[in-house]
UniProtKB/TrEMBL annotation:
<dbReference type="InterPro" id="IPR013024">
    <property type="entry name" value="GGCT-like"/>
</dbReference>
<dbReference type="GO" id="GO:0061929">
    <property type="term" value="F:gamma-glutamylaminecyclotransferase activity"/>
</dbReference>
<dbReference type="InterPro" id="IPR039126">
    <property type="entry name" value="GGACT"/>
</dbReference>
<dbReference type="GO" id="GO:0005829">
    <property type="term" value="C:cytosol"/>
</dbReference>
<keyword id="KW-0456">Lyase</keyword>
<feature type="domain" description="Gamma-glutamylcyclotransferase AIG2-like">
    <location>
        <begin position="24"/>
        <end position="145"/>
    </location>
</feature>
<dbReference type="Pfam" id="PF06094">
    <property type="entry name" value="GGACT"/>
</dbReference>
<protein>
    <recommendedName>
        <fullName>Gamma-glutamylaminecyclotransferase</fullName>
        <ecNumber>4.3.2.8</ecNumber>
    </recommendedName>
</protein>
<feature type="active site" description="Proton acceptor">
    <location>
        <position position="102"/>
    </location>
</feature>
<comment type="similarity">
    <text>Belongs to the gamma-glutamylcyclotransferase family.</text>
</comment>
<comment type="function">
    <text>Catalyzes the formation of 5-oxo-L-proline from L-gamma-glutamyl-L-epsilon-lysine.</text>
</comment>
<dbReference type="InterPro" id="IPR009288">
    <property type="entry name" value="AIG2-like_dom"/>
</dbReference>
<dbReference type="InterPro" id="IPR036568">
    <property type="entry name" value="GGCT-like_sf"/>
</dbReference>
<dbReference type="GO" id="GO:0042219">
    <property type="term" value="P:modified amino acid catabolic process"/>
</dbReference>
């Protein structure tokens, strides 16, 4: 839990607010080095702190679909691969931004999933709270149940890279027609 202290300039009184950070697992264009990572760094949209790398405990199909080559994790547990991605702690403001950015709930749905920690860099306030590799934690993931039926026949990936060997370069929103 994070405590924020706000000081009123006129009265110098302190009010204490608490806000829990949510864990979000990103597997596509929001990862480091990918086209939309800049949004994770933009503090005007909220706070996103990189914590580490992980992969889905269950297998899921990760496909690249549509005319803009968008990565989608189809919410079909048990099919596909263990999908690799990054774990972030985000505040409520960033979570709201991500919901809007991901077109939630129409295009993607934000659901809790079990993520296996592969590498952890996050800082912890209490000793012993740092998750070891192979530990499983719950994270929100933007996956979809509202996909086109033919997408299940597309190639499945375990790790998305917009400039990967697949040759399907992601089209930024500002470049779309």
């Amino acid at each position: 839990m994070i405590y924020m202290y706000l000081v009123s300039h006129s009265s110098a009184r302190r009010k204490v607010f608490s806000s829990a950070m949510a864990r979000v697992f990103v597997y596509g264009t929001l990862k480091q080095g990918q086209p939309n990572y800049r949004h994770m760094l933009n503090t005007a949209k909220g706070i996103a702190k990189f914590q580490g790398r992980g992969r889905t405990v269950e297998k899921y199909p990760l496909v690249i679909a549509g005319k803009y080559n968008i990565p989608y994790m189809l919410n079909i547990p048990g099919t596909g691969h263990h999908v690799a991605g990054e774990i972030y702690s985000v505040d409520d403001q960033m979570l709201q931004f991500l919901d809007e950015f991901e077109g939630c709930p129409d295009m993607y749905q934000r659901t809790p999933m079990s993520i296996e920690v592969v590498e952890w860099e996050g800082k912890s306030s209490a000793p012993g709270e740092r998750p070891a590799a192979r530990r499983v934690m719950e994270c929100f993931v933007y996956s979809t149940t509202t996909y086109q039926p033919e997408w299940v026949h597309l190639p499945y990936y375990d790790n998305y890279d917009s400039s990967g060997k697949h040759g399907l370069s992601y089209v930024l929103r500002e470049s779309r027609d």
